[in-house]
Amino acid sequence: MQSSSTNGPSRGVLDYFKWAFIVTAAGLALGAVLGWQMTQTLGGTLTIFFICAVLAVLEISLSFDNAIVNANKLKDMTPVWQRRFLTWGILIAVFGMRIVFPLLIVVIAAKIGPWEAMVLAAAEPARYAEIMHDAHLPIAAFGGTFLMMVGLSFFFDQSKDVHWVRWLEATMQRYATIRGIEVAIVLVTVLIFSRLLEPGESQIFFRSAIWGLLTFLLVEVLGGLLDSTQEMMEAGAKGGLGAFLYLEVLDASFSFDGVIGAFALTQNLFVIAIGLGIGAMYVRSMTIMLVEKGTLTAYRYLEHGAFYAIIALSVIMFLQSLIEIPEVITGLGGAGLIGLSLWSSIRWNRVNADMAAEG
Question: pTM of the prediction?
Answer without folding.
Answer: 0.71
